[in-house]
Amino acid sequence: MRKTPARGSHTHGGERVLILSAGVGAGHNSAAAALQQECAGRSDIAEVQVLDVLQVSSVLYRALLAKGYFVLVEGLPWLVDWGYDLSDPPYRRRGPIDPWTRANAVPVINEIKRFRPTAIVCTHFLPAQLLASLLLRGVTDAKTAVVTTDYDFQGLWLPGAFHSLFVAREEARIELMALGLPSDRVAATGIPIAKQVDGVPEPARDPNKLPMLLISAGATGGDYAVSVVRQTMHMRSPFTATIICGRNDALRHRIEQLVAPAGDRYSVLGFTEEMPHLLRRADLFVGKPGGLSASECMAAGLPMVLVNPIPGQEVRNGDYLMEQGAAVRCNTAATIGWKIDEVLREPGRLQRMQAAARRIGRPDAAADVLTGLLEGPSRPLIVTRAAQKTIFAASGQRIVATDLTGPSALVRLIDSAAGSTVALLQAEELDDLQKRYATPDGGLVLRRGQARLWLRWEARRLLRALLRSDKALPVRVEGLSKSPAVPPGSIEPSTPD
Fold first, then answer.
1. What are phi and psi of 185, to 5 degrees?
2. Which parts pass through the membrane (predicted)?
3. Given strand 212-216, what is the order of strands in its sheet?
4. Can you say whether the dihedral through the CA atoms of 60, 61, 67, 73 is positive or negative?
5. Whole domain around residue 422: which residue ranges?
6. Per-residue pLDDT tens digits for 403-462
7. Within a domain: residue 491?
8. pLDDT(153) > 90
9. DSSP state for residue 483 in the 8-state scheme
10. In this structure, are 422 and 345 located in the same domain?
């Protein structure tokens, strides 16, 4: 649990920002640290706190989620791939949080109540799902943001209530809009990464020196780095290499012995704080395409040679980088040296890949996330469970939301004063609201104290989350369908349970 007073901490009424992460791999916490760094430099933020939700959960829960995941990655990668695809459809699970997760969330809820944040940023889907529940129950009225940490969007990250959703690339934003999410709640900012420290000169690549390879074994030091280094020792192209072994001292000693005959061509390091400098001095990165690693490389204009990607998110990260021309992938250890040689020996190829990396780099992602959240809508977007059911069915059938008709078609409620979308629901759910709150111009004025028992439970839940401390909220209804809603019983895309 880390607290940082921001530059505006002396200013009365400054924002209190809580950043919730989960230590499953290093990327989620790295994104949280980047956001914390950005908060510390803003005058409108009084205090920022970072909390790894797994660190305050039970030992068993933490072990199963954090350590269990990497056990599967090492021993049963096909199962990880299957699980990723299984959990990819948005809103596959629409019920309440399971009792075990809820029990382990108690310390997080207590910290939210104690800290009293005005804004909460989630860099993992676990706290994002918890925050949705808390918004709907009225436990917090803080602005909440969900910040994805991979280039591809996975449905697990889409909660039923939030203020802002920040994705890594434009295609993910288009995907969510096609499913019915409103454009005023989803932004493509990139993945938050740490900035260069002020006052420290940024190293530049020297075109007159030999190409420098930056070979990374990851924060924990993966053994695959040994085969990577061994392969580079057979390359024909002249080069130098810096090898980062992370916190794995045994790996570092092993590689030092391996490269000893090569003299000063190789430099072997353990965990280092100098990674931002190394990224900007290197000419080619060799390693895994984790979301944060890839984002840091792209921001530094550093193309990648991808090795040993984790099935699911890292494979998809690699697909995007290769599509953009900023990476090549090695599917077998036996060709790593040859693959790097091909990049270095082809005239102009390395320079083209560097230009592609710079083009898609988003060094200001952390700043864009905070600005988007703090200056964004004050009321949350609520996606009812019925609407979630429609989105899940539409995604499975590859149907765009605007093509849906009938009672299960999606409609939006727009805050008449602010102009922001506050709810996404099924067309048939409007009946309860229109009976009580309809206005002559076709809009609605939702009012406190008029949520009678005859209202369905979901409608009462929606009112509680939207009204908060207000007595009334004028909204207008906006349909997504291209054609008028058809009567119940008409032909429409099925929405299975």
1. -115, -5
2. none
3. 266-269, 240-244, 212-216, 284-287, 304-306, 327-329
4. positive
5. 381-479
6. 888 888 999 999 999 999 999 999 988 888 888 899 888 889 998 765 454 456 777 788
7. no
8. yes
9. S
10. no
Tokens of 451: 């949520």
Matching residue, tokens 């939030």:
162
Cite the beta strand spans of 115-228 per DSSP E.
119-122, 143-147, 161-162, 164-167, 186-188, 212-216
How confident is the prediction for the chain on average, in pLDDT? Answer: 86
**Nearest-angstrom CA–CA distance, 295 and 317:** 10
Q: Say whether both 59 and 168 belong to one domain.
A: yes
Our CA angle for 431, 433, 438, nearest 5°, is 100
State the Rg of the chain over Cα: 25
E strands within 277-348? 284-287, 304-306, 327-329
Q: Are residues 318 and 230 in the same domain?
A: yes
Residues 158, 253 within the same domain: no
- For the chain, give the percent of residues with pLDDT over 90: 56
Distance CA 269, CA 253 (A): 10
With CA atoms as reference, report the closest residue to 168 among 52, 291, 268.
Answer: 291
Structure confidence by residue, pLDDT tens digits, 79-125: 888 888 888 889 988 766 777 777 888 889 999 999 999 999 999 99
How far from chain centre, in Å, is Cα 201?
30
β-pairing verdict for 381-383 and 327-329: unpaired
Residue with tokens 């602010």: 418
* 48 neighbors 36 (Cβ within 8 angstroms): yes
Q: Which of 374, 404, 423 is the last residue of a domain?
A: 374
In the numeric block, the tokens 């093509």 are attached to 403
Q: Is residue 76 part of a domain?
A: yes
DSSP code, position 10? T
CA dist., res. 124 & res. 127, Å (int)? 6
CA–CA gap between residue 470 and residue 372 (Å, rounded): 24
Q: CATH number of the domain that 271 lies in?
A: 3.40.50.2000
Residue 137: what are its φ and ψ, rounded to 5°?
A: -90, -5
CA pair distance 88, 67, nearest whole angstrom: 22
Number of domains composing the chain:
3
